[in-house]
Amino acid sequence: MGKRRLIALLRGINVGRAKRVAMADLRKVLSDMGYSDVRTLLNSGNVVFDCSAADAADSAGRIEDALVLKLGVPAKVTVLEAGQLAEIVAQNSLEGVARDHSRLLVAILNNPEQDRGKLEPLANLSWQPEAFALGRHAAYIWCPDGVLSSRAAAALGKALGDAVTSRNWSTISKLHAMACT
Q1: Got the DSSP string for 1-54?
Q2: Which tens digit of pLDDT belongs to each residue from 90-114?
Q3: Which class is 3-75 in CATH?
Q4: Residue 105 in contact with residue 141, Cβ under 8 Å?
Q5: Homologous superfamily of 85-179 in CATH?
Q6: Is the Cβ–Cβ distance between 9 and 58 less than 8 Å?
Q7: Residue boundaries of the structural domains of the chain
Q8: Looking at residue 1, what is its pLDDT?
Q9: CA nearest neighbour of 145 among 113, 176, 102
Q10: Backbone phi, then psi, for 71, in 5-degree steps?
Q11: What is the pLDDT of residues 12-41, one digit of tens each?
């Protein structure tokens, strides 16, 4: 069994004063779990790491448990394989529309089969001047006036609740580059 390159996205950490996690502590927790080449991006819970194929399947749950046990921080964790992240990057049909990549939101679907069914009606609506597109593992939302004032982002949040974690296109692009090295 070979190594797998994974990307973990922690939801809701280091936002405001709640759920504070130092990235050095996060890297140590994952390293202590037996994961290798553990690297973080920014201060918002983005981790690229390697693990055995056997450990890949239950890595999200194991990381969630370790966050609580070692750092006292509960957080939902979404884990993608490097190939899934590459597919998310390749399927972004809004990159040419978005003039500011910090306002192009990528919502990673935790349960793509179920979540896509909830989001397909949104993908068929007109959101001008915003835009909404749906890929296999993610939804893409162009928020020209910012995420907080986005009707499409609000509709996605209403449809999926906290069963989704989002990053802007700049962060997704950087994670993809890290996962490829």
Answers
A1: --EEEEEEEESSTTBTTBS---HHHHHHHHHHTT-EEEEEETTTTEEEEEEEHH
A2: 999 998 899 899 999 999 998 888 9
A3: alpha beta
A4: yes
A5: bacterial protein sp0830 like (3.30.70.1260)
A6: no
A7: 3-75, 85-179
A8: 57
A9: 102
A10: -120, -10
A11: 887 777 788 899 999 999 999 999 999 999
